[in-house]
């Protein structure tokens, strides 16, 4: 048993003792404790079968595709009765450590007891997913005397147990349930004792509880109660007390866990409650043998220690082993249950591995769920009071404080910060055998990922490496030699960072070059990489690191790595730091032969001169700045078509071999979002020793600067490359502003509003119309008349509507947020930059914090509601368009006045200036934080109290921005210290992302979608379906193809996840612990429309992080497909029936709709093909998409991982009417990253539809409070106007020099990608971009000087767009581009 859940059980017990709490109330209590904004919806009554349950009962019940296929019969023990009474027992446990101890107890009874013997059947909880096992379990319980359950915390399986056991409870002699879900706990029955009856307020136990609660020592009192109550109850005369005593004794026996304790437990229960044993002598039943609640254990020690001094005295006088004086000390955290049940072989192996490498160990344990107690007590030096250990290595797999159901992360973080050493949390295999894990492409069981990987990450846990396996027959744990060796090496490496002097440490800084081109060296999202590296090096120098003869400016640093800026990338143009002879490579790289299948023998053709492997980069003292090789197959169209990704090539392997074994790095710093290491093939989570990320990173501690707004990919880096991910700030958002004709339009509209009632009104409208058409706004405003129309002939109302629509559109452009420039690590924002960010933080209502957003407060000040203003603004009502703009600019003025007080003389926001802000808060007589910004305006009567609350929050947010600890956290990590964890996400939606410099984590994947996310999703789904219905002559779309992204669902707490469920007409429902793993069908009469079919493309990152949610989605679609409803009202069923007949499948299998890549592979490769121009025609791109994205998830066989289902995928796409994606963050739009077009199937759908019809394509934009559903072409135009064509954006990028030019080229390349996949880019976008970047000789010069390689790629992009038919232009433009290309090519080649 996992005693980490003990206190949770006591919590349930306390509730039942204190009052007669109903089951429903108990469930609500737990839900509110455990889930963030749970979705509303009734919880299913215990024993009631949902529609889904009934349908699943008819599904294939074979074991194929389950996570474990172990036959529970191996635990069955049938004795030879020989005239003895046979007691039949059945048990279900979460994990297997009790199996061998229970089996030994049963065998001992059967071998020695003269009057009684035990027949036992045992099940691991996970095995009950299998229908055959479930039926056998039911049969066993029907014939049993006693049922025992422990740690039944997976609701869907708990319900199955309750459904079987509850009807049989009265016929069972005894039912003993230890910590489990509330519904299971209520099955407890020992004579008169049951959880339902423990609410008697006069009971002795309840009285004891009340005293402990009132005294304030509740938790300690509970633990003391368990230790002492059996002795107290002995002297109570009543039968009830005797039964309660038996239950508490049972708990003591169970917690004791040894075969002796369990033998006495079984005999006690049998003697007391099995009628056939009345008056039968079963022998002496000993009292429970108890063990320390916390202590120190060692496999070689004669006893458990409860004092660290005693342990150290024993340890330091051991004769079997000697340690160096400066040996690192590893603190190991263990579960007591494994120790007391004799299932500690895996612990023995880990301790021995550490000691064999020269490390001392302090292995501590806890019997409760709070492992921070032994950490606090035993990991500090009793003399110096400083940290005794150099690294903490948890072998529990659980959060530091809390078991599978409830955690206390703040308490855990407090303990770990005080200790201040690296915290590694490894994982034991609990639900799979070793063989099943090895054979699985998924790797670790998804429930374990959620409980034992995701939750420890919230504590700051690192490196979720599998350290132990489970024997399929005995159930015993055993060390996995290669895994425990890897863990030991890595733990000691982290420890050595604490002990080594900075001047002696070797640091490998790794930069990326993606796509492979010399102009792309130093690629990272939102980051000025070389400017940041330069700051890092200067900071390291101050801290005593040897950075040698490092350049004294950023440009010289770039040049030293690039070496000859004019050289060609494909030749050895980058600086070659090391030439590794092939013989050396083969000797040092243990896995090089594994790469031959994909790449042949070394040296291959990449990163080599034909004789040696080339390691590109430059060394400065003890710091190596290296260029990570690329995937290697980007330019090979055939390899891009492969459904599974290739292994790393020899050059890639040689790079990491150099870092670990030649340069001997003490740590590697991967610089920016993101590289290729974490996306190499291997298991999704819980990698083995043959997974490439594990092989490549070796034993080197990995520190990784990752963008704060990308927690999903940061989590992949954390889990697959064992990275300590440190967040960096994205560039502060600014409003896009207006320029050229758009600016002129705003001035014309201002004139019209002043003069519209005069005779000049119609002529101004005429000018507005022609200017709007010149700006191509006629594509977005369908009401806009043609240029030859005369506004004098229009009614005043229609003229106002035209002006209102144009005004609304240009202000939509003006207000659009965009990150200007690139972030430099450790550089705080300017006051102006802070204003735009804070305005948008202020724009959101935050009900949980009691904060009303500024737009609503200002709207209320003039007697309006902001939702009404949004709605009428969207309709183009001029009065309300102006009203919204007045609110927008008033918000900016208020925040601008506020921030002005925090600016230092240079215009930066300074930490010391923040003290001044405090003077503006508190007493109402003190000056308003927003100064005089609203004085004399129509908003002057705003509610000052609510505004003060909002501005107090804004002050907190501003302080977080300024507190940036990006350089400090890096120094902490390199010193072998604990880096504080923090959430990743959108700083505007969730300012808790700030300050940056935190060890990024995602969220509890079982907590989404939240209730708030479901509500937001409904708004978008309703608008999407209604817009398509209106534009399609009143006909509903039958099928929608959409994409699920990992980061988006983290930022929005599952909004797009909820969208899918709502489309098919299903609601997500939380279980009794708040985990969202249940479904409820929405009746058609409530839905008010047909169920819309879906084809869901999950990104590879989403697949890795949210396997449980993919399971939920697949169940939702299949639930809808199997409803007996009219086809015209259920398109899911309609299509599934058609496909079942067409493909010869069951309806359930034909309803497969949840797709992604093969496990260990990512993306469709369409982005790689476009970025490298390595594609012939669009059909080749579509083949890539179909080959790589046609792997399906099946909730009926979840252990199978992703299975190829090309026919169903193609058939489902052929029925799609709409393609759809979400934008949820102002920082990332359609052309900022290649992922969006890489996952777009718009033209592919047209290609597979029988009628060849192009689907409608929409983008939901929830980046502001006023959510919008736009067409893809509208969104592309908006994106182009605010970024690629916007002087404010491109001048900000050019100010970043080399890397800014690359960012401009990337936007152009991604625009080309959208043309290739969707055809939704207007010709004028390319024409205007050509005028901005290519037709201006001064602009040409700037681009050429800053980054000639990227400039060459831009010229090539324009020529490619024309050559592929995406851009029609004059021959003059094409000739200029050809000439430009030759000129820049000659310059790069060094031709004069």
Automatic annotation (TrEMBL):
Domain of life: Eukaryota
Cellular component terms (Gene Ontology): chloroplast
Classification via CDD domains: CobN_like (cd10150)
Pfam families: CobN-Mg_chel, DUF3479
Pathway this chain belongs to: Porphyrin-containing compound metabolism
InterPro entries: BchH, CobN/Mg_chltase, Mg_chelatase_H_N
GO biological process: chlorophyll biosynthetic process; photosynthesis
CobN/magnesium chelatase domain location: 252-1373
Keyword NADP: no
Catalytic activity: protoporphyrin IX + Mg(2+) + ATP + H2O = Mg-protoporphyrin IX + ADP + phosphate + 3 H(+)
Keyword set, alphabetical order: ATP-binding, Chlorophyll biosynthesis, Ligase, Nucleotide-binding, Photosynthesis, Signal
First and last residue of the signal peptide: 1-23
Every Magnesium chelatase subunit H N-terminal domain range: 88-248
One of the record's GO molecular function terms: magnesium chelatase activity
Family: Belongs to the Mg-chelatase subunit H family.
Protein name, entry field: magnesium chelatase
Species the sequence originates in: Bathycoccus prasinos
Lineage: Eukaryota, Viridiplantae, Chlorophyta, Mamiellophyceae, Mamiellales
